[in-house]
From TrEMBL:
Residues 161-262 form the Pyrroline-5-carboxylate reductase dimerisation domain. Catalyzes the reduction of 1-pyrroline-5-carboxylate (PCA) to L-proline. Residues 3-96 form the Pyrroline-5-carboxylate reductase catalytic N-terminal domain. It comes from Fervidibacillus albus. This is Pyrroline-5-carboxylate reductase. It catalyses: L-proline + NADP(+) = (S)-1-pyrroline-5-carboxylate + NADPH + 2 H(+); L-proline + NAD(+) = (S)-1-pyrroline-5-carboxylate + NADH + 2 H(+). Pathway: Amino-acid biosynthesis; L-proline biosynthesis; L-proline from L-glutamate 5-semialdehyde: step 1/1. The keyword Amino-acid biosynthesis applies. GO terms for cellular component: cytoplasm. Its main location: cytoplasm. GO terms for molecular function: pyrroline-5-carboxylate reductase activity. Belongs to the pyrroline-5-carboxylate reductase family. It is found in: Cytoplasm.
Amino acid sequence: MQLGFIGTGNMGTILIESLIESGAVRMQDVMITNRSERKAKRLKDRYPDVHLVHRAEEVAQASDIIFICVKPFDYHPLLQQIQPYVTEQKCVISITSSISVEQLESILPSTCVRAIPSITNRAFSGASLLTFGKHTSPPWKWTITLLFQNISRPIEIDEPLTRVASDIVSCGPAFFSYCLQSFIQAAVKETSIDEKMATELTEEMLVGLGELIKKKHYTLPILQEKVCVKGGITGEGMKVLETYQFHKGFEKMFRATDTKYQKELATIKGKYDMGE
């Protein structure tokens, strides 16, 4: 089965790398194109059997599964551009939260799926979010789910949960990387530890925490209870976090991402004929 990728930006590249290196797909079964050929050429240099072509139409015509990995506002003209080459037998996968499967189906005759990956998929871990169009057949649903099982735990979500689920799965690594970097910098500023040591210790703590969660030894509240001994040092640190209402920052973050998302949806909506 031929996989085509239109767009080789950050997330498109991560998907290609992960699917090839996990063994989910062979290099020779991957076709790529990008508006800036230099980015696509870097992938071709690393995976020499990948097919690099110049036009999105070539990818659409030759591929069974077509991944669209471009910016939300570039979707509509691209979909119109490739529409003549997309048949009912093909599957088109969008990887952006702002474009719904219904919008894809309003232009394309193919099976349409939205798959939101995460940078954690590069380590063949974490979740990926799948939303299937109403015309998705059981064989296509099984095929796409199996494909993503090679690099993640695929989780099917409904349209109303798209933004918050994306914030957690796809944006979450950036949010928590920022928190961890702030954690490290504070340790360096307030104590005699150097950044290299603080970073190493933090990374090991995070990996260990992930294993605890993965193996379901403790829930998050119980984990806090186990570490935070009454009257102990951890408790003093927790008091500071509670005093500064650490959780309020996350609440504002979710509100900000949703506001941005709703503005994108409103701008994009007018371009698609949804039969309303």
